[in-house]
Amino acid sequence: MSLDTSASLQREPVSRVPRFLRPAPALEVIESDPKKIERGYAKYQPKILFWSTVGYAMFYFVRKNISVAMPVMEKQLGISKSSLGLFLTLHGVLYGVSKFANGFLGDRANARMMMALGLITSAIMNVFFGFNTAVIWLGIFWMINGWCQGLGYPPCARLLTHWFEPKEMATKMSLWNTSHTIGGAAILILCGYLAPHDWRLCFFVPAALAIVMAMLLIVWLRDTPESVGLPEVKGTVMPAAEDEKFGITLAHRVFGNRFIWLFSIANFFVYTIRYAVLDWGPTILKENKGLELTNAAWMVAGFEVAGLAGILVSGWLTDRFFAGKASRMSALYMILCGVSLFFFWKSPAHYTLRSTLLLASAGFFVYGPQALIGVAAANLATKRAAATAVGLTGFFGYISTVLSGWGLGYLAQHEGWDAVFICLLFVAGIGTFLFLLTWPAKANGYGEA
Predict the structure, then answer these.
(1) 43-223+258-437, what's its fold?
(2) Residue ranges per domain, the chain?
(3) Sign of CA dihedral 274, 383, 102, 256
């Protein structure tokens, strides 16, 4: 990769950031030999990508574990689908608010400490959830968990935009986005075996794993290239004045950018489909397709694994054929996702292999836009405001749980699963239209004054 060795060190805006979360101090760049600097990046970049990926995957262990536990909780605790859907909605809305609010912090905080804090506090909430059976306390602890989860994505956006060039962000961020499918698939499989024994294990075991991962992040992650004595990555050098005018930076690069708003609204519809399958998939397959819970968990895990492939392919195609412009690939993927959902809906219950392939196809196509929205927002906002931008897109993504959680739960209970699928097809159509509106967006905002 090419580096800018002449770039001066820039200060991070750290006012109002708690001391233990303040960015790691910048070290003086001693080495001026481009080859030595190249070796320095070759040493750290793979570690940053790997640990931010597996670290964020672990957030799914203490968030999406509830989807497999729900059918057992419904039977043993007598909780209705509407109530379980309300859990998902309240958790998702608070998570979206947290993701947005913590985006401001993520642009100014130490990424590894912020990620570790999120995992530890979320693990604690999972333990409290597992020790309770009263609906009110289950709801309270799951809502608090939603807030803790919002500490995960912003530091990852900071890490990726500081360590990698804009021209390779679609590929690198797509690799990082495999964390969603790795974490989502792994926890579905794990809980598929834990839930039949005791639904509480779906919360205790992941909590223990999350605490271990938090410790590993503190040991292996690094904040920015400057914090280890490396210069800024070429193509990401920003005017020094922006460090002193963080509010102006946000107003110009995030809140004043109509394309970031369009990507954010589109994210609502992408996440509606994604979470409809993740949250209700095991229940749909059990009640609508007649599968056992363990088999249903494997099929939804297949949705996640196919999504991993979709993410990687979408990132490569975006960089290779669209010069980093994510909107065009997103529109195509969203159309094909809707087609896959239609044929999955119409697949007969006893055609298990066909249903499995169609559900996997929907996962392949919905996860492409899910990854590319983050790429587009981070690049347009630049590294100075990337965490805030992805926080905004995340807010819209997770308030979708009003529809994917409570809304679809109510619809399924009163109108049946056919009404749910009709709703999801409309969602795919609206999402496609919004992506078409972002067609003129630039690949990144670094060339803007």
Answers:
(1) Growth Hormone; Chain: A; (1.20.1250)
(2) 43-223+258-437
(3) negative
Q: Crossing angle, helix 352-381 and helix 326-346, to 10 degrees?
A: 160
Asked whether the predicted pLDDT for residue 334 surpasses 50, the reply is: yes
State how far the Cα of 83 lies from the Cα of 396, in Å rounded to an integer.
22
Q: For residues 345 and 288, what is the distance between their CA atoms, to the nearest angstrom?
A: 10
Residue 24's φ and ψ, nearest 5 degrees, are: -60, 135
Q: Given CA atoms 254, 154, 69, 349 in this order, what sign does their dihedral have?
A: positive
Quickly count: other Cβ atoms within 10 Å of residue 242's Cβ: 17
Least Cα distance to 15 among 140, 90, 107, 143 occurs for: 107
Of 294, 292, 303, 270, the closest CA to residue 377 belongs to 270
More confident residue, 446 or 392: 392
Q: Both tokens of residue 153?
A: 């994505």
- What does the block give as tokens for 160? 């990726």
Question: What helix, strand, coil percent values describe the chain, rounded to 5?
Answer: 75, 0, 25
Among the listed ranges 148-152, 406-410, 417-421, which one has the minimum average pLDDT value? 406-410
Residue 3: strand, helix, or coil: strand
- Residue whose C-alpha is closest to residue 152's, from 123, 186, 111, 209: 111
CA distance 372 to 316: 11
Please report the sign of the dihedral spanned by the C-alpha atoms of residue 443, residue 233, residue 316, residue 271: negative
23: left (phi over 0), alpha (psi -120 to 50) or beta: beta
Q: Are 13 and 108 in contact, with CB atoms under 8 Å apart?
A: yes
Cα separation, 243 vs 257, in Å, equals 19
Q: pLDDT of 98-111, one tens digit each?
A: 988 998 888 888 99
- pLDDT per residue as tens digits for the range 36-87: 888 889 999 999 999 999 999 999 999 989 988 988 888 888 887 777 777 7
Least Cα distance to 271 among 377, 180, 172, 152 occurs for 180
Closest CA to 82 of 414, 369, 373, 363: 414
CA distance 207 to 322: 41
Q: Identity (one letter) of the amino acid at 149?
A: Q
